[in-house]
Amino acid sequence: MTNQELKKTAIEVRKGIIEGVHAAKAGHPGGSLSATEVFTYLYFEEMNIDPKNPKKADRDRFVLSKGHTAPGLYSTLAQRGFFPVEDLKTLRSIGSHLQGHPCVQHTPGIDASSGSLGQGISVAVGMALSAKLSNESYRVYTLLGDGEIQEGQVWEAAMFAAAKKLDNLCVIVDNNGLQIDGRIEDVNSPYPIPDKFRAFNFHVVEVADGNDFDQLRAAFVEAKATKGQPTAIVMKTVKGKGISFMENQVGWHGKAPNDEEYAIAMEELKKAGEE
Prior knowledge:
Blueprint: H1 3-24, H2 29-34, H3 36-46, E1 61-64, H4 70-80, H5 120-133, E2 140-145, H6 152-163, E3 169-175, E4 178-179, E5 182-183, H7 184-188, H8 193-199, E6 203-207, H9 213-225, E7 231-236, H10 259-274
Parallel strand pairs: 1-2, 2-3, 3-7, 6-7
Antiparallel strand pairs: 4-5
Domain Transketolase N-terminal: 13-265
Family: Belongs to the transketolase family.
Organism: Pseudobutyrivibrio xylanivorans DSM 14809
């Protein structure tokens, strides 16, 4: 896809995020919106996947380690054709296949149930190791939050991935600077993030603007070309990106817009799409 097509798709993904959390009156829009471009790039450009055959054996795998940002992943999967876009309005409803965190048993396109922070990267490492042991060519991608990497299990998994030279693994850190309790450096600073992954023998790609498709494209090309070690893409993003009153506001980590806020957000996205 061209960057213009990717941008248009990302706007539709953002609309789906707002639709879902507004309908549910609950959910996590902030981190879903900061990661919208990386979700879009992965599912429309980077990964070998087939919506008509979600379980095909040679597909690339994706693990949403920061599972609370499921609205962003669900909206992307819907836009990609894994299930109807209308399903997004059933987010968190009883009987819906779209629960508050991804569930591999119920939702087409989900490769791992997640939500317990820190654990998704371990699952992704296991998948990458399995591919190596089976001489399979698929790649494994996992998205972590910058607050999430305060969890110790993340670094155990990182150490193992490097020790086993899992160059089919790509760890993405969404560095939007905010977690539920405030700024990450005020809660429990993980900085400097790139240096930590380098110390764990990762190849590190730093992305100055993770909401920019040119920069994301270059990062994923570099990751795929890296041999002999796993890659960490550390991308600076804006929490709540694309909705003016949500951007860089920690309060939108886990809060749904009311009817008035919903209308403003959807109007902003409509205008962005027209532009």
